[in-house]
Each structure stands twice: as structure tokens, then as C-alpha cells.
Write a structure and sequence with these properties.
It catalyses: biotin + L-lysyl-[protein] + ATP = N(6)-biotinyl-L-lysyl-[protein] + AMP + diphosphate + H(+). The protein has 279 residues and is α+β, with helices and mostly antiparallel strands. It contains seven helices and 14 strands. It has a seven-stranded mixed β-sheet with strand order 1-2-3-9-8-7-6, sandwiched between helices. A five-stranded antiparallel β-sheet has the order 13-12-11-10-14, covered by helices on one side.
Length: 279
């Protein structure tokens, strides 16, 4: 089966450009924007050779994984557009619920098992600001990029990478893949569900007007609430207990003195071992 959009995505005017292999789906989407594309374009591939993660880190995807980038063009405020990462996380989690409803493994940041029909259900958790975890290991990542267009419109690219078939073993954090976890799902099936789930979550988001509801839904699937956390921010490590994300989707921790600290950007590490590694 090749890549395809859901009927709802097609009905709402979204288009698809699919590759077997690509350098970077985000780079292609940004090129399309600079060439005058009107947006509502998904760029997808089963292999990405020179993708990027946060802070310029390499994010290549082996064959059989999913690299998907959504180009949106409009008169966005950058602060509002930045919250599309939370829409993307929820959409991917919903898509995984739809295509991997029951598999044979335990999941969850706390290692707890959840059973449905005699099998444990695939339940991913959302790690602020842009990762999805399964069984405490990274399953997917999200990267937002933007470029200002000559007519004062902003092009936003929402990049989503999922370890479907293969996961990297040369990274400083635990990683996993759907195949390793026992899920029977390929990149094409997952993308079809993702393109459908995006429609619902972006409708709720409504240009930022529904951010409160998106925040509520995100928190219901958040990893590590109430856990010890270390956050690296510009070379400094802040420690405390992860309490929530605030109305602007900033990460909120309470330090040892009881002070609440709001963090707009940083690398999050949960637990005592991960906190030590944040140094």
C-alpha cells in the first residue's frame, strides 16, 4: 500500500507529496513554501537521510519508518503557531490508538500495564515539548520550523518522525519502535490515521482559540507529572517536580524551595538517573 490521505483530509483540501526516500521532509516542505505553495500540503517518506531534530541535531529515519511534514501557510502569530507541536503530539497519539489498539507489551512511563481483551493496549505518553514515549522510551519526535514569506504570511512546517520499523541505538536516551513493541503497523497505515487525526485536533485548536482544550487533552496523556525532573536550559540544569504545563504550554516545575518555575524551551530528563545525565 502506498501513502494516502484520509477522506476527511482530502475533503478539507489537503494534498500529499510522497517519496520513497528523501533528504528531509521538512526541507522539502519549506522549499515548496518558498516556491509559492499555498499550504495544506503533507510531505511524507519511509526513509529520511538528512533530517533535523531540535537544536540542529541529526534525525535520520531508517527505511520503513515514517517521516511526515505538514506545510501550513497563513497570517499566524509565531507564538500561537508554536503550539501546533501540541496538536501534532495529540494527533499522533490518537493515530496510534486507532491503528495499534491492542498489542502484546506493557507501556507507560511508569511501566504500568493496561489490558484490553486479554492484551496490553498501546498507550503512548507525551513528553514535553515534542516527544512521544512508549514504555519510557522515545518512539517519535516533532519539530516545528517556520519561514517568513514576502507577503507577510508565515509558513509553518510541522515535522513528525516515528520509529515504525527501526529505532536508533546510538543515542543517549532509550529509544524504541512499533515493531520492537510488537505492534503490527506500517508507515503508510500510520500516516493515513495521522492525517485523519490531525483534522480533529486542529479543528479543536482553531487557530489557537481552542488551546485550553488542547492543553487539557495533552495533560491527560503527559509523561512524568509529579516526577522528579531535570531541565537543561541554555547550559543550566534546573531541578524540581514536574507539575503541569501552563496556559501558554510552558513547562512548570516546583523546585526544592517551593518556587514554581516556568520554562519556555529546554531538554527534559525524568527520574534520578536521567537527571544525573542532564549534567
Amino acid at each position: 500500500m502506498g501513502f494516502s490521505l484520509s477522506p476527511l483530509a482530502q475533503q478539507n483540501g489537503f494534498r500529499l507529496e510522497a517519496f520513497e526516500t528523501v533528504g528531509s521532509t521538512n526541507a522539502v516542505a519549506l522549499e515548496r513554501a518558498q516556491a509559492g505553495d499555498a499550504g495544506k500540503l503533507w510531505v511524507v517518506s519511509k526513509q529520511q537521510e538528512s533530517g533535523r531534530g531540535r537544536r540542529g541535531r541529526a534525525w535520520a529515519t531508517s527505511h520503513g519508518n515514517l517521516a511526515a511534514s505538514l506545510l501550513l501557510v497563513g497570517h499566524f502569530e509565531l507564538k500561537t503557531a508554536a503550539t501546533l507541536g501540541f496538536v501534532a503530539g495529540l494527533s499522533l497519539a490518537d493515530a496510534l490508538d486507532a491503528v495499534c489498539p491492542a498489542t502484546g507489551f506493557k507501556v507507560g512511563f511508569d511501566g504500568a500495564e493496561k489490558y484490553e481483551g486479554g492484551k496490553s493496549a498501546l498507550r503512548v505518553e507525551l513528553k514535553w515539548p515534542n516527544d512521544l514515549l512508549a514504555d519510557g522510551a522515545k518512539l517519535a519526535g516533532i519539530l516545528l520550523e517556520s519561514t517568513q514569506l514576502p507577503d507577510n504570511r508565515l509558513a509553518i512546517v510541522v515535522g513528525i518522525g516515528v520509529n515504525v520499523a527501526v529505532y536508533p541505538d546510538d543515542v543517549p536516551y532509550p529509544a524504541t519502535s512499533l515493531m520492537k513493541l510488537g505492534a503490527e503497523c506500517d508507515a503508510e497505515t500510520l500516516f493515513l490515521a495521522l492525517s485523519d487525526a490531525w483534522e480533529e485536533n486542529s479543528r479543536i485548536w482553531g487557530g489557537g482559540r481552542g488551546l485550553a482544550e488542547i492543553r487539557k487533552r495533552w495533560l491527560a496523556r503527559a509523561a512524568g507529572i509529579g516526577s522528579e525532573v531535570a531541565v537543561r536550559v541554555d547550559g543550566t540544569v534546573l531541578r524540581g517536580i514536574f507539575e503541569t504545563i501552563d496556559e501558554d504550554c510552558r513547562f512548570v516545575i516546583r523546585d526544592n524551595e517551593g518556587e514554581r518555575i516556568r520554562i519556555a524551551a529546554g531538554d527534559v530528563h525524568f527520574g534520578a538517573v536521567a537527571s544525573a545525565s542532564a549534567e
